[in-house]
Design a protein that fits this description.
heterodimer; A: about 250 residues; alpha+beta; seven-stranded mixed sheet; six-stranded mixed sheet; 3 helices; B: about 180 residues; mainly alpha; 11 helices; 2 strands
Chain lengths: ~250, ~180
């Protein structure tokens, strides 16, 4: 076997594994970068650190007991459990969690969320309810799971409200100027869920929520937003819920 | 498009370093396809590979200040971030549970896979990610040995040794001349 033969053979094998990237990958990366905060080095870090310390000090003075507050994670992705949610989220504690309240949701972000993965998810998490509501400063969509958390969740903000329906491949356009695609892996929306798959709310922020995928264990919901693609996302347990607060002012 | 980007790279690089995210997107655009191919082979899942490339792109943007050298170093630097992102994805428990099951068992002769009876694709998937990575970089992405070494953070001789050892796991009778 010559060097060229080996190189060709191994290249073909790699080709069959990888296939081609999606034509949309470049646009997807470009959109994610446009929304990503840049990292500018020590001066920037020092300024941020000083701001964080100042906020913490003010918080301590005003609230008295800051431990009563739920922690937040960078990137707007968190849980209401006592442990902060990093990109790899631990399973929530078994204790009952509070219902989502009408209190203003803290810390919005406007960039693609880190991939939020769950430890010990069920084979498939069944979505059994999707609810929406509006509050001062934010609108909320809650996706409830019947039997535990899905494998992973990611939110992908975008400019515009045109989305490609998974598996079908056609494009749908929702109401609004901005969009967020919610990608839930390890879930299905056809076993337990029988509600609407196109919810038109006409809230100040969230105008429409539409299911754009329920295929091979991946459920996708598209959100059409009026004036901002900034959000705050976290999970609650008993029952397991994905809560997304959308800035509406 | 790629030619234009390569030709204008120093200027685009300067704009990116100045905080222009779209300039950075333009800079890495020609690298997205090799990055995707690297991730797809490392993760054996195309959708997850695209997610990994997206995450790696954001991390690269945030770490741009750490890039040492000129625009010529960009490819190995970016691919090393992609490779790290793939390692992080693979470390997650759910991934190892779901993906290992897809690899079919191999016929093994002695310590090596039998070239005559083993599908090369299966043999590649059977390699550990650490063994697969130098092969992807050198044979699939056609990176020269020095660039493979930079991406892996090794000396050129150590990179060469890794490539050869992994290649011998695919074809036990390969000589050094047949590999390099």
């Amino acid at each position: 076997m010559t060097r060229e033969d080996f190189r060709r053979e191994i290249g073909d094998a790699f080709d069959s594994i990888s296939g081609s990237s999606s034509p949309a990958l470049s646009d997807r990366v470009r959109a994610a970068l446009a929304e990503a905060p840049e990292h500018r080095g020590p001066v920037w870090i020092a300024a941020l650190a000083a701001a964080v310390i100042a906020v913490v000090l003010v918080g301590v003075l005003l609230v008295g007991n800051p431990l009563n507050r739920g922690p937040l994670s960078p990137g707007g992705l968190g849980t209401k459990s006592p442990t902060p949610c990093t990109p790899t989220c631990p399973a929530p504690l078994p204790s009952p969690s509070p219902n989502p309240s009408a209190a203003p949701s803290p810390g919005f972000t406007c960039v693609v969320s880190p991939l939020m993965t769950m430890s010990q998810p069920p084979q498939t998490a069944f979505i059994d309810a999707v609810r929406t509501g509006t509050h001062t400063g934010y609108d909320r969509i809650t996706i409830e799971f019947k039997n535990g958390q899905p494998q992973s969740i990611q939110l992908r903000p975008q400019t515009g409200t045109t989305f490609t329906r998974d598996a079908i491949g056609d494009k749908v356009t929702l109401s609004g100027r901005y969009g967020i695609l919610v990608v839930i892996k390890g879930a299905d929306a056809h076993t337990s869920y029988s509600g609407s798959t196109d919810i038109k709310t006409n809230y100040p922020g969230l105008l429409e929520a539409r299911q754009v995928g329920d295929f091979e264990g991946t459920v996708q919901w598209a959100l059409g937003l009026a004036s901002s693609q900034c959000y705050h996302v976290y999970t609650l347990d008993n029952p397991t819920r994905l809560v997304i607060d959308l800035k509406n002012s | 498009m790629i030619g234009v980007v390569m030709e204008q790279r120093p200027q685009i690089m300067a704009r990116a370093a100045g905080g222009d995210a779209q300039a950075f997107a333009t800079l890495i655009e020609p690298l997205l396809d090799p990055a995707y191919r690297l991730a797809a082979v490392m993760l054996a899942d195309r959708s997850t590979a695209e997610d990994a490339v997206q995450e790696a792109s954001i991390k690269a943007w945030r770490k741009l200040g750490q890039l040492r050298g000129d625009a010529g170093s960009l490819r190995s630097w970016f691919l090393s971030i992609v490779a790290n992102e793939c390692r992080m994805v693979r470390r997650q428990h759910w991934w190892s549970v779901t993906k290992v099951a897809e690899v079919r068992p191999l016929q093994v002769v002695g310590d090596h896979f039998d070239a005559a009876s083993t599908d090369l694709k299966t043999a590649l998937l059977r390699l550990s990610p650490g063994e697969r990575l130098p092969l992807v970089l050198h044979f699939y992405l056609d990176l020269p040995l020095e660039e493979v070494a930079r991406t892996l953070g090794l000396s050129p001789s150590a990179a060469k040794s890794r490539i050869y050892r992994a290649a011998r796991k695919l074809r036990s009778d390969l000589t050094l001349e047949e590999v390099f």
